[in-house]
Amino acid sequence: MTLIHNPETEAAVPKRKKRPLLRALAAIGGLVIVWGIAGIFLYVLPSADEPEHADVLFVLGPPDQRVSYAQQLMQQGYAPTLAVSSPVGRDGKFEADICSAHRPYRIICFNPDPFTTQGEARALKDLSAQHGWKSANVLTAQFHVTRARVVVARCFEGDLRMVADRRGLPLISLANPTYSWIYQYLYQTAALVKVAIHPGC
Fold it and tell me: Second label for 9, Cα 20 to 30 Å away, from 17, 86, 188, 200?
């Protein structure tokens, strides 16, 4: 028995067609997975600091539940001054309730211009020069710590500690979309890109 293969007479085996769409979808899926894992370390479990005694406990806005946590830290004696970033209402008064409260420590409320993390960082720089602050515990929501650290450090030359107000956010929220992990992943990532593009205080 003899078997002969002649490539000239045999029909060419058809090549499998490439599927660029599937490859593109697989690549996108891989990027989403990497982004999701990276976000755990950037937003969910960021590299935050434990508070230490400082010249000021500086609370980034908006003045939500983080102000309650700030008051707990003040009661524990972490700083003699509490500074709170707060918008101003139509009546010309600060919207944060703490601004009109009486406490055994000094309270400074300020309305940064613009009302952004960069505006708040510039306000910290100006207030530090005015009051002689050399150290600051800066308090913000955990998903904001990574970006805020970069922005604030560009303006404040003193001893900086970024303190996280931990949040148990839902993955998705229809009632309040901004307080969900999906929104914060998207928003904080876009904001980090902006920070990288626009350096400086």
Answer: 17
CB 120 within 8 A of CB 61: yes
Share the mean pLDDT of the chain. Answer: 87
Strand order from edge to edge, sheet including 56-59: 106-110, 81-85, 56-59, 135-141, 159-165
Q: What is the pTM of this model?
A: 0.82
- Cα Rg for the chain, rounded, in angstroms? 26
* Joined tokens for residue 107: 């309270």
- Cis peptide preceding 63, ω within 30 of 0: no
- DSSP character string of 89-148: -TTSSBSSGGGG---SSEEEEE--SSSSHHHHHHHHHHHHHHHT--EEEEEEEGGGHHHH
Contact 173, 97 (CB under 8 A): no
Phi–psi pair at 38, nearest 5 degrees: -60, -35
pLDDT at 137 over 90: yes
Whether 121 and 156 have beta carbons less than 8 Å apart is answered as yes
Report d(CA 123, CA 148) in Å as an integer: 13
The 10 Å CB-count burial string (b at 16+, else e) for 55-66 is bbbbbbbebeeb
End-to-end CA distance of the chain: 85
